[in-house]
Amino acid sequence: MAKYIAAIDQGTTSTRCILFDQRGNITCQAQKEHQQIYPQSGWVEHDPIEIWLCTKEVIQEVINKGKIKAGEISAIGVTNQRETTIVWDKHTGKPYHNAIVWQDTRTKDICDSLSAEAGQDRFRAKVGLPLATYFSGPKIKWMLENIPQIRAAAEHGDALFGNIDSWIIWWLTGGPQGGVHVTDVSNASRTMLMSLTHLDWDDEILNIFDIPRSMLPSIVSSSTPDFYGTTSQDGAFQDVIPVNGDLGDQQAALVGQTCFSPGEAKNTYGTGCFMLLNTGREIIPSTSGLLTTLAYKFGDNPANYALEGSIAITGALVQWLRDNLGLINKSAEVEELARRVKDNGGIYFVPAFSGLFAPYWRSDARGVIVGMTRYINKGHIARATLEATAFQTREVLDAMQKDSGVKLKNLKVDGGMVYNELLMQFQADILGVPVVRPKIAETTALGAAYAAGLAVGFWNNLDDLRSNWQVDHTWQPQMESSQRDNLYQTWLKAVERTFNWVE
C-alpha cells in the first residue's frame, strides 16, 4: 500500500530526497552536498554527473533508512535549482561541459549584444524577463558558440539541453535507454525562450538566439496524472514509480506554502532569496524590475502566473563569511556573532558578487561594504551580513506592491535562514509586516511532493493541502517607522555605490 510521496530537491549546494506522508510530514530524508566549481572570476559551474550520483545516493539512503518496501511510494516529484544549464549527449548521457550555474555571469557580452538593438526588455513582452546573465537561454547560446562539439551535435540532433529538472527526470526514467526529455512550464519560463501565453518555445526568439529547437525538452504541466515516465527497475529506486511532478524550486516553495490564491506571497531564504506573489491566471507585466513567471500548471487546468523578485546572494553571503574570511566555523554561528553588537555600527554590506538581480538587473555592479570606521568589529560585519538579506527583501516587496497594487498583510517564509531569529525579527521590522514561518519549513521539497501527490490522488484537492499548513512562529514588527525609514534610505544609498564597477 502506498504510504509516501518522494520528493527530489536538487539545489545549488546539495541534493535531498525526502519522503512525505499524507499530512505533509517528513518521515525520512537524506542530503548530500556537491562541489562548487569556480573556473575564473564570475564563472560558477557544477558537475552534472556528480549531481546525478548524489541523487542516486540520497535516494538509496532514504530507502534504506526508511526500510521502504516495493509499492510504498506512490509517486515522485522533482524540484530544482532553476536556470542552471546542461547540454548532454542523448546517446551516452555524457555532458559536453559542466553545468553553467544560475549565478554565472559569463554571458554578459551576449546579453549586452542582444540588448543593443532593442534594450534590456527586448523580449520581456513575450517571456516576462529582462535580458540578463541569470537565465538559461544566453547560457545555451554561449555553449553553442564556445564549445564546437555542442554546435555540431545540436545540428545533428544528438545534443539535449535541460535545466536540472530535465537532467534528473531523464536519468530517473532510463537515461540513454529511453529517458524522457521534458521540463515543466515553471522551469521553461526561466529560459527566456518560452512564450508566457502559448506555453511553448518561441520560434522567433530561438532563431535570434540561434538555438535548434530539437535540443529542447517538451514542455509539460507541473503535475500530471498521465505522468512523464516511470523509474526503471534497475535505476535509483529499484521499483517502478511514476514521476508526476516537476517544479522549479521557488515555484515549488509557493506550492508548499499553499499560496494558491491571487495576492498570496512567500519568500524563500536559501543561497539566494526569492519572493513570489501569486497573480492567478493574470499575466502582470512588471514596470518595477520584477520577473513575470509561471507559478504552476496542474493537469489540464489553466496556468497560474506570478511576479517574482530574485536576489542573487543571501545565504551565500553567510557561506562567504565562513569559507572565504573564516569569521565563523559553521553558518549557524553567524547569529551568535551578530548578537554581540546592538546594531550594524553604521556599516552596510551590499553583496553584488555577481551583479544585482531584482529590482535593478545590473550586471556591472559588484559588492561593497560602506561606512567602515575603526569602531567596526566582526560582530558588526556579521550583523550587516544578515541585514543585507532583509534590506534586499524590502526592495523586492516594495516593487511587488507597486506592480500588483496588493499590499501584503504578512509574508510567509521558508528556507534555511528562517531559523535565524535575529534575521527574522529584523525582517519583520524593516518590512513593517508580520513574518510567518510554517511548521514544515521544507516547503520546496513539499511543493514537489504536492505536485506529484495531486496527480495520483494521494491528496484530493488544494483544500487537502491547505489543511496541512500550520503556523510555527510569527514575528511582529517592533521598530519605529522613523528608524525603519532611516535605515532603509541609507541602504539604498549604499546600493548606489555598487553601480558601474565593471566597465
Averaged pLDDT: 92
Radius of gyration: 22 Å
Strand arrangement, major sheet: 15-16-14-13-19-20-21
What's the end-to-end separation, in Å? 61 Å
Number of beta strands: 21
Poorly predicted regions are: none
Content-based structural category:
alpha/beta
Oligomerization: single chain
Characterize the largest beta sheet: strand count, sense, and whether it forms a barrel: 7 strands, mixed
Helical proportion?
25-40%
Gross morphology: globular
Describe the structure.
The chain is α/β, with parallel strands linked by helices. Helix content is 34%, strand content 21%. Strand 13 and strand 14 form a beta hairpin. The radius of gyration is 22 Å and the shape is globular. The mean pLDDT is 92.
Short description:
This protein is of the alpha/beta class and 503 residues long.
